[in-house]
Design brief:
The complex is a heterodimer. Chain A is about 50% helix and about 0% strand. By secondary structure, chain A is an all-alpha fold. Classes of the chains: A mainly alpha, B alpha/beta.
Amino acid sequence: MAKPTELDLFIGLSKVLTGEKKLDKTLAGEYLQRLKAQNAAQVQKILDEFSKIADDPYVVFEVKRRIVETKETGKEDLPPMAQQIIRIWYTSEFFPLGPDGKPILGPDGKPVASGGSQKQYYKGLLWKVIQAHAPTNSTLKYGYWTEKP
Amino acid sequence: MANEYDVVVIGGGVAGALIAWKLAQAKCNVVMLDAGEKRLDKADREVFVKAFAEAVNTKKTPSQPYVDADNSKFAHSPDTPDFNPADAANKLYYRQVGPDMFKSQYQRLVGGSTWAWRGNSPRYIPSDFKLKTLYPKLDKAVDWPISYDDLEPWYCDAEDALGVSGDHREWNGVFGAHRSRRFPMPKIAQAYGDQRLKKRLNGLKIDGMEVKVFGLPQARNSQSYDGRPACEGNSNCIPLCPIQAKYDATVHVKKAIKLGATLIEQAVVTELRLNTSGNISEVLYKTWPNGQMASVQGKIVVLAAHAIETPKILLNSNGGKGIANSSDQVGRNLMDHLGGEGAAIMPFQVFPFRGPQSTSCIESFRDHKFRNQFCAFRLTIGNDGWGRGKHPFDSLKDLTDRKLFGEELQKELNHVVTRQLRIAYSTEQLPDPNNCVTLADETDDFGIRKPKIAYKVDDYTRKGMEYIQKIIKTMFTRIGAKEGEWEFSDLKAGVYSGSAHIMGTTRMGSDPKTSVVDAECRSHDHKNLFIAGSSVFPTASCTNPTITLAALALRTADEIRKRL
């Protein structure tokens, strides 16, 4: 079996983190590049960790134990990186991490966000999960809001 | 001469656009000046939509989609950062001297602040026009020089012009506000969550006042109207409707141009000059980006630049000596509808972010037996989760901070956000001469002195907010929302928001000693100067001002037409 590519690993990890069974491969490539442009080392590290458990029959349990909730020394930046991967898929934006594994702060003391394209904003998983659509992106007709989705 | 017109209209927002349209219809030679850019085409709107979508969530402010770097530099639209104390050291547009923060913004581009309004269009009620007579204990209250009945026919025309969707049976006679004409469109369909709320609140009375959930009249199409489509529920009325189902003033700017009016964009008015007769002889402006000075002349000049820019222009005029101000009221009596909200997790799903940001309201407290003691108010039911208080992106962060991921995250996110509902309140503020717009020492890039704002929120409004929160808590209890899942604006910390309903700074009145314009909105001091917009409101009511200022603008246009 061919060794999974970096993109394969990213999609595999993203499925576990987001809870989505199917993810858009093109979008995955775009998100991977955006995350790497800001946090290349942390992305490599989280994918390396995931590669060890990607084929585990209890992959969700392992991702929780070894990535999302890990307190292992030297792996402190895995949980926040996992959080940013969820954020980018759900919202199209994420908060780049500094060397300390915490979001980089702007002059106003607030985390600096990296925003996505219009298409990425519209494809944010959050809107689907809450059974709505991204603002400005209704594909429905007048009055649909009177009924539950 | 090429720069001579019958009428010069300063400001291409709803008041200016309606006046330009009506006078162009009457074959007058009209020119409109606007400080911002002309963005009237479908392609322009698509650029705005893209700018909105690509802004990070914390930057999705009311003015954000509209202002490119040049527009922001030369015709700055005040926005959230302009009333953020943390940024006070920066070169903000407003110079705020307190003691409280003025928190409302407006848009400086052709079409004005209607780009970023929600379209809410309830009328004022008769008592709003005679506050002093009805509530004599209120020292600061004044009566309008006109009554509801005087304005009623113009309300009808304004509703037709803007395209207001509403339910005649619900609204006819509310607090004595009779309606002589039906709304041009049926009411906007009420959201699923609002319907459930309405059932739970049915029959509730608080202090003898019955809580009734109404369909909110809105200048948003419930069907195709005036060449614009029906609302498709894009959940983004503020800051931007992507399909123009919601009215904005570019509608009437375009109509005016089609009838022959001239529009000069990127024209920042620096001052009005007087002739020896005391009339306005010339309107001076600078065009951006090059700053070239130019002027136009008109038999009539209409100043419709909203309630901060209008007094700023008047005070900067006549070589900085100011005009139209023998009453010393220019810039004074600055008012807003201060607001806040109560938010709760409902015991049932309401499915926010589907449809317009609000479709229902509660009007039961527009006039009440306590109005001598504290303010009137109205409530709007949000269809946008917890609105300004907590965006779904924040809920997501909370859940991922708790280490939720995968299917568990989806389940919890859906559970929380689909039950989020807020009830927003909007309060009446009394006119106070010490709440005022004057000129700062600092100048903008064109050397024009910026607005300086002194502002205080008095006890009349603050006490009202305390009462309102009790009302909303009673409603939440009735609905069955758990108290541990309520969130309220923190009144002890002095938390309030602005509504971008800026009013009062060139008020109308019968007495030239205490008002700036007369009942026709003509300057007491300069007979060829008219002022349009909410700056002429003597009192604020607690109700969105746009349909009232639109009605007044149409009335003023008719007055001008008679004089030409």
